[in-house]
Amino acid sequence: MQRPFARSTDVCVTAAELYLLPVETRMPLKFGREELSRVTCARVRLIVHDRLGRVAEGWGETPLSVPWVWPSPMSYADREAVLIDFCRRLTQAWPLALDYGHPLEIGASFQGTNLPALRKRFNEISRCSEPMPHLAALVCCSPFDIALHDAYGQLVGEPVYRVYGAEHLSRDLSHFLTPAPDSAVDFRGAYPEDFFDYPPPDRLPVWHLVGGLDPLTDDDREGPPIGDGYPETLREWIEQDGLTCLKIKLRGADPEWDFRRLESVAAVAADYDVRHLTADFNCTVTDPKYVTAVLDRLEREHPQAYEKLLYVEQPFPYDLSSNQIDTREISERIPLLMDESAHDWRLIRLGRSLGWNGVALKTCKTQTGALLSLCWAKAHGMHLMVQDLTNPMLAQIPHVQLAAHAGTMMGVESNAMQFYPEASASEAAVHPGLYNRVDGMLDLGTIAGPGFGYRLDDIDRRLPAPEVSCER
Q1: What is the radius of gyration, based on Cα positions, of the chain?
Q2: How far apart are CA 422 and CA 364, in angstroms?
Q3: 232-237 long-range contacts, Cβ below 8 Å, gap at least 24?
Q4: What is the per-residue pLDDT across 248-265, written as a single tens digit (0 to 9) for each?
């Protein structure tokens, strides 16, 4: 597509570096049928130049959460090795493939053209027993895309959420998004900043993840205590952090277990000032009646708990195109949010046609994709949440800023402090309110400066040698 005009602040990527930061969990995190006990975070540094020759660097980070991006009987180690190999290839691809533009333009172009071609070629030459899925490729791409937006903000001297208007973009949203045919939405003359909450709040209600393996009380504890000084039961977490919002992981393949889990968590919540619950059925449901039956029983037997249920998250399989299930019998009674299926705004458009009425945004699907999805969904009156990928270290900062600007149903999910709190110790020394939940809230008041406001100069984080570097 021909650019309407060129701006002096348009950038191109001239160099990239990839760093790998391993993190161990203090307790297992269950994803569907798998348990996560460690994760590798991909941290990326990009160098950009603008048309006047000015130079800036930006940083992005995303945990390569293998079970979430690639559910499979393949071993964790084999899948993780594939993701890391693809990140290496992306490090070589980003400085070589792109022309000048705004980060939103570059990001949309890369994801629309370069990333599919790279993934296709990678899967053709890979010795892996099954192809790497699109979601995995998207998560590998996200730290590069996040770093690009950060670098642009650094170059123009503005926070990232101040660079998404006509002053910096040469194209309005009509060049990126197509409305649903049954809507009156018109993106002509509209820009992402038109869909942000201004001013963004400095504090956000925070959701706690109740995993399928998490003990709720001392009576549920199996085996010896961890003994690392952090809470080990749901009761302890609520009492320490003043939690008011609980996200409950369910199995989606055992209705009795799912109901009892909702019942048990709701019983604990009733003893405290917990106001909101939500149910995540883990993409394993194939019939909407499974969900409605569980909800009907909860409403009948525990109406107060049912009243606290704010929304239901992604009961159905990842691949929406191959699983076009009509969801209206759920969404007509409670907000139903796409998560794993919402790779981009086009799939959100498909989901809306099937009855989904909400979207869980994630920066791990790229900052560009999250912004375009936010704008499309909000323009069409869909509910919004910002969900976690257990983001530690730098990954937490773009994550919470997306939630602050999106205008979510209720705050933001943040659970890295549950599973690997020590991983973020260096960042927490500068941004304590982002990595510690107090009175059920996160405090964003320490974020400052251009880009994502990481304040990297203040953070005492020693990085390993780059895994790979590439220059144009």
Answers
A1: 21
A2: 21
A3: 232/27, 234/208, 234/210, 234/265, 234/268, 235/268, 235/271, 237/208, 237/418
A4: 999 999 999 999 999 999
DSSP, collapsed to helix, strand or coil, labels residue 185 as: coil
State the Cα–Cα distance between residues 333 and 339, nearest whole angstrom: 19
Read off φ and ψ for residue 142, nearest 5 degrees: -60, -40
The more confidently predicted of residues 178 and 126 is 178
Structure tokens at 413: 């999910």
% pLDDT > 70, the chain? 99
Taking the C-alpha atoms of residue 431 and residue 153, their distance in angstroms, rounded to an integer, is 20
pLDDT for the residue 31: 72
Structure-token pair, residue 340: 């794993």
Q: Is 256 exposed, middle or buried (0-12, 13-18, 19+ CB in 10 A)?
A: exposed
Residue 29's pLDDT is what?
82
Beta strands in 32-54 (DSSP E): 34-50
Residue type, 151: A
Contact 195, 379 (CB under 8 A): yes
Mean pLDDT computed over every residue of the chain = 95
Q: What share of the chain is helix, strand, coil (3-state, %, to 5)?
A: 40, 20, 40
The structure tokens 């027993």 sit at 129
Helix axes 288-301, 255-269, angle to 10 degrees: 40
Nearest to 437 by CA among 200, 196, 209: 209
- What value, to the nearest 5°, has the Cα angle with vertex 443 and ends 441 and 448? 160
Residue 4's pLDDT band (cuts 50, 70, 90): low
How much is the pLDDT for 1?
A: 40
